[in-house]
């Protein structure tokens, strides 16, 4: 029998995923969405000088920061040529091969505009050119202009920010694909967990962090300001997929993922495992022998140190326009985060088993 999904609001999830917010430009949309979603469920909410949204549910127990980054990878215009084509550079880890023949949504002084990354038809290519991958030197964006002045009149200029165009699609009852599951799917799960948490001893700070994709910058200042004992980063991880050579362990539909490794406090991961078993929530484990590449990296070495963990939702095809997830994993991640926060009480956080 299929698992019953109870905690996912498809409309809010889609809104969170599709709201604008390339790294450093979270104020273009997602920041206000997060504030609106959380404001009635927390005791106070603020935006710090870097743009992090910090929502506080007061408690007398352990101070914990749970963070999911709001920012997206994207592109920036660095040149407009005389024929009106935009030349772009990446903001964060964008693979230029994923942009060929795709749409880009731009945010100009004159509102949202769209462009397409042109692709030379195979009929017009030389055989040797068909073997070459796209790169940042060859990509151009066509916005429908015939000359530079026309593109500028439309609102485009050096520094204009763009992101993958929205393309949310349900594949079946449980699976869906869209750009920007990294990390909007975990941001959504964090929001729902914050709304669901009821009786709790922990002093909880929910953080929609900024600029994770360009250096974990938001989490650095947020963790310094909050100074929590415990920090949990909610971020996506790799699921088994074509071409992974059998090296990826987490699977879609098998539940959230908890990392183990030097970036993870073993007592926090053991606590999460106990909570998952207590409430019958499936939990997968992922080996992370190096820094995890999440906000937990920087949280762990904040001030005098924090006990950190990473709670992940597995996805396929990361950093592409077709990132793919299973809604059952989202549902179970919300449940685990809720119960973990409600059950958290003072504990010895000195690393050890």
Task: Describe this protein's structure.
The protein has helices at residues 10-18, 30-38, 148-153, 181-196, 217-226, 266-278, 295-300, 327-343, and strands spanning 44-47, 53-57, 63-69, 74-80, 86-91, 103-108, 111-117, 141-142, 161-164, 169-170, 175-178, 203-209, 230-238, 257-260, 284-287, 307-315, 323-326. With 353 residues, the chain is of the alpha+beta class. The protein has 2 domains: 10-72 and 180-343, 3-Layer(aba) Sandwich (Aminopeptidase), CATH 3.40.630; 74-164, Beta Barrel (Elongation Factor Tu (Ef-tu), domain 3). The chain has an 8-stranded mixed beta sheet, sandwiched between helices. Strands 5-4-9-6-7-8 form a 6-stranded antiparallel beta sheet. It has a 3-stranded antiparallel beta sheet with strand order 10-11-17. Strand 6 (103-108) and strand 7 (111-117) form a beta hairpin. Helix 4 (181-196) packs across helix 8 and helix 6 crosses helix 8 (327-343). The protein is globular and about 65 Å long. The two termini are 37 Å apart. The model has no long low-confidence stretch (mean pLDDT 95).
């Amino acid at each position: 029998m299929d698992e019953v999904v109870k905690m996912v609001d498809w409309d809010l999830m889609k809104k969170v995923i599709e709201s604008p917010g390339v790294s450093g430009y979270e104020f273009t949309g997602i920041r206000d969405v997060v504030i609106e979603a959380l404001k009635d469920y927390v005791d106070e909410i603020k935006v710090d000088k870097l743009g992090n949204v910090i929502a506080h549910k007061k408690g007398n127990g352990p101070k914990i920061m749970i963070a999911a980054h709001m920012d997206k990878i994207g592109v920036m215009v660095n040149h407009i040529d005389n024929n009106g084509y935009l030349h772009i550079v990446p903001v964060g880890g964008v693979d230029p091969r994923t942009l060929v023949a795709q749409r880009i949504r731009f945010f100009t002084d004159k509102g949202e505009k769209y462009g397409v990354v042109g692709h030379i038809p195979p009929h017009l290519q030389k055989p040797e050119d068909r073997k070459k991958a796209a790169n940042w030197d060859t990509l151009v964006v066509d916005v429908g202009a015939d000359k530079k002045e026309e593109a500028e009149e439309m609102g485009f200029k050096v520094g204009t920010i763009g992101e993958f165009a929205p393309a949310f699609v349900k594949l079946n009852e449980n699976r869906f694909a869209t750009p920007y599951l990294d990390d909007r799917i975990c941001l959504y799960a964090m929001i729902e967990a914050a709304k669901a948490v009821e009786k709790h001893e922990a002093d909880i700070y929910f953080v929609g962090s900024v600029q994770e994709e360009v250096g974990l910058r938001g989490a650095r200042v947020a963790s310094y300001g909050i100074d929590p004992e415990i920090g949990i980063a909610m971020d996506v991880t790799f699921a088994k997929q074509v071409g992974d050579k059998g090296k990826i362990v987490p699977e879609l539909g098998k539940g959230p993922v908890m990392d183990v490794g030097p970036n993870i406090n073993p007592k926090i991961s053991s606590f999460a495992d106990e909570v998952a078993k207590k409430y019958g929530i499936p939990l997968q484990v992922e080996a992370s022998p190096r820094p995890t590449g999440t906000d937990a990296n920087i949280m762990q070495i904040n001030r005098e140190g924090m006990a950190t963990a990473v709670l992940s939702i597995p996805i396929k095809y990361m950093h592409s326009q077709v990132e793919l997830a299973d809604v059952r994993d989202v549902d179970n991640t919300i449940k685990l985060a809720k119960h973990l926060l409600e059950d958290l009480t003072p504990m010895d956080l000195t690393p050890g088993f």
